[in-house]
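Contributing new records

If you add data, match the layout below exactly. Sequence lines come first and carry their own label; structure lines follow with theirs. Keep one chain per record. Anything else will be rejected by the validation script.
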Amino acid sequence: MTTTTTWHPDEDATPTPSDVSFMAEVLEGRHGVLAADVAEFFASYHCERGDAGRAWAWSGVAELVRTRERARLEQN
């Protein structure tokens, strides 16, 4: 049995806090110190295309990545 998920552009795609955390972790793992910049790129991309929900979500990811970076720097 397979499960298919359908996405509709008019549906709310606001991620949960755990989704944002997961997105941040994936970006940090794949892009290291550039993770916040990558998230900002996606935020700008979605903003320019009028998708405020996704732009907001990616901005949240960028903010979380930067917060984690500051915390790591303060520990050292």
